Amino acid sequence: MGFLRLWLALAVLSGHFAPTVLGYKMLEAGPAVLGFFVLSGFYMAMVLDTKYRWDLPAFYWNRLLRLWPSYLLVLAASLAAYLAALALFGVPLGPFVPLVKAHGRLDHATLAATLLAQASMLGPGFSHLFEVTRTGGLAWSPNSYMQANSLWRLDLLPQTWSLSTEIVFYALAPWIVRWRSRTLALAFLGGLAVRLALGLMPPPYAWCARLIPLDLTVFCAGVLLWRQQRDKAPALGPRGRAGLAGLAVAYLACASYASGIVFQALWAPLAAAALIPWLMEPGRGGPWERTLGELSYPLFLCHLLVGRLIVLGGFDGPWLTVVGAAVSLAIAYLIHRLLERPLERRFKRVPRPAR
Questions:
Q1: Predicted TM-score of the model (pTM)
Q2: What are phi and psi of 294, to 5 degrees?
């Protein structure tokens, strides 16, 4: 599944850089994230049913080791880069744009709370539900998502709202994977129906696009797919799986031409789900594909910082997404090779065997 993970990460990058890549429109960023959630549900169900079945502490430790160090590195690099851009060039970037505009009325407690929440990886998942008040404090305001004073605009890594959702899923996964298949199916289909209804409503309801309970229902599709894989349930034959995978690839490649973002949010997770049985066939992929998949996370973390710095350097135009993707991939490789792999070799816990 490594290539699919990387392609979805590049779709998120494209959505944040430019609507088209040399004239080609990729899948929208939001629906691409929902595709990630399906893959995550499948993988988490698989590892919790196999190697971590008898050792939940090892599962949580290894998830923290996989996510937090790279996150903290890119968070610190973003803060340093934005401070340097402001000090050297007088140009506010990212969260410093609203900070500069609000200079003199943003209190230190708000800044401290925002930074601590971001460092925990949970803050970006909830920051869109608050706003910065006229006195510099915080107030609950779930409909402030599109407003200039919404708290999420102070996030150093605003794209990591989906990472907060992943963490909540990890906390609940040991219980979700025990649900009956019927419950998982109803949760997934019900979530899609609610998402469609909310997507067709006026903008005040746009904040629901980042509603964690609604996003959690997408993981259920991945859990169901793992259960079918594990139980070798009757399904399509090899040709049927290949045909379904071909249709899924065609849709993901042409989604932006075939449907708007609301319907992409419905069909993208289904297309990702249709690809998984074919990708999991014996002999599919190899070590190189696993490496590609491992690059998707650091690329997801660093791409927004890379894009902003490239534009600050004066480069913009039709090649921005291509250049940004190349630079982001190079940085992602360095993060994976110099930080993630050494930490994993030294600190990853081996789960206890079956009792």
A1: 0.91
A2: -65, -25
